[in-house]
TrEMBL record:
Belongs to the UPP synthase family. Its EC number is 2.5.1.31. Substrate binds at residues 19-23, 31, 35, 63-65, 67, 69, 186, 192-194. It is an enzyme of class 2 (transferase). The keyword Cell inner membrane does not apply. Binds 2 magnesium ions per subunit. The active site is at D18, N66 (proton acceptor). Keywords: Cell shape, Cell wall biogenesis/degradation, Magnesium, Metal-binding, Peptidoglycan synthesis, Transferase. This is Ditrans,polycis-undecaprenyl-diphosphate synthase ((2E,6E)-farnesyl-diphosphate specific).
Length: 246
């Protein structure tokens, strides 16, 4: 099923990949195995998104709050991230996908920071799709960090206070050069945003599923796209106005 010409396809999809630990408990796996299983689910989701014409896919791998998890789990997640990046670089080159990372890198090991930068530089020229992995990321941090950078420009007289508006802010925040998020998917059965892409998801359609992330598949992704295409997106207008514009 290809939707590339279809207006009903989300241009930018964001996923909160939740439920790895519960999957491990359900399957009586060892500690950490849920995260290992979850890592393998991403590839078919990326490939299918590319195939149907999604322009940007952003996934929540590790939140600013996840630093509070037990140390062994934090270490494992960082190790898996390193493996993921090393595996993804050749795949990004094969499919001509640009790989990016968003989040506060100051808490990440210098070795991993270097690897992230290397992956970004190697894939920067590709434009079939942008895959963004949010690591050490929080939406409130993102908004505060953008405000801080704008304040620095005002202080250096590179920017007038009167020039600051939501358009400028939207360009300067993480992913500001990509379309806003159209569809936010959360696996694992919780109904909250968990501080993910708060600015970028202002008008996103939300899709929540009980499916745990290691069990999420292309069929369910297609179902989410179907649900998305059946929703009327009004952006503050009335249904009548939207119909007239069509």
């Amino acid at each position: 099923m290809t939707h590339s010409e279809d207006n009903h396809l989300p241009k930018h999809v964001a996923i909160i990949m939740d439920g790895n630990n519960r999957f491990a408990k359900k399957k009586h796996l060892q500690k950490g195995d849920g995260h290992r299983e979850g890592k393998n689910v991403l590839d078919p989701i990326v490939e299918h998104s590319l195939k149907v014409g999604v322009k940007a896919l952003t996934v929540f791998a590790f939140s600013s709050e996840n630093w509070n998890r037990p140390q062994y789990e934090v270490d494992l997640l960082m190790e898996l991230l390193k493996d993921t990046i090393n595996e993804q670089i050749p795949r990004m080159e094969k499919f001509e996908i640009s790989l990016r990372f968003i989040g506060d890198r100051s808490r990440i090991s210098p070795e991993l920071q270097d690897l992230m930068l290397h992956a970004e530089q190697r894939t920067a020229k590709f434009c079939n799709m942008t895959l963004t992995i949010a690591v050490s990321y929080g939406g409130m941090w993102d908004i505060a960090d953008t405000a801080k950078r704008i304040a620095e420009q005002v202080k250096k007289q590179q920017l007038e206070v009167d020039q600051i508006d939501s358009d400028l802010f939207g360009k300067m925040i993480s992913l500001g050069d990509l379309p806003p998020v159209d569809l936010l998917i959360r696996t694992g059965g919780d109904y909250r945003l968990s501080n993910f892409l708060l600015w970028q998801c202002a008008y996103a359609e939300l899709y929540f599923t009980q499916t745990l992330w290691p069990e999420f598949n292309v069929q369910e992704l297609e179902h989410a796209f179907g649900v998305f295409s059946g929703r009327e997106r009004r952006f503050g207008k009335t249904s009548e106005q939207i119909q007239q514009e069509k």
